[in-house]
Amino acid sequence: MNKRLGKTLKRFRLKSGLTQQEVAELLSVSRPTYIKWENDFGSPSFLQVYILIRTYNITFDDFVIDLK
């Protein structure tokens, strides 16, 4: 697992002004599950990443580049 995924998820969430609860609901997961992702335990599915990209109005490249 890429150790930057959690930081990337958190950075884009904060930039969008959404709470962990709001993002969790958007992705149909519990808040504790989403918190684990932000702490690099587990990760969202590709569909969930797609939903985030659309929500944050960024490109897939923006998301992947931030992981580097």
UniProtKB/TrEMBL annotation:
- Protein keywords: DNA-binding
Q: Mind telling me which Pfam families this protein's record contains?
A: HTH_3
Return the SUPFAM superfamilies for the record.
lambda repressor-like DNA-binding domains (SSF47413)
Instruction: Give the matching SMART domains.
Output: HTH_XRE (SM00530)
- Molecular functions per Gene Ontology: DNA binding
Q: Which InterPro entries match?
A: Cro/C1-type_HTH (IPR001387), Lambda_DNA-bd_dom_sf (IPR010982)
| Record's protein name | Helix-turn-helix transcriptional regulator
Q: Which organism is it from?
A: Pedobacter roseus
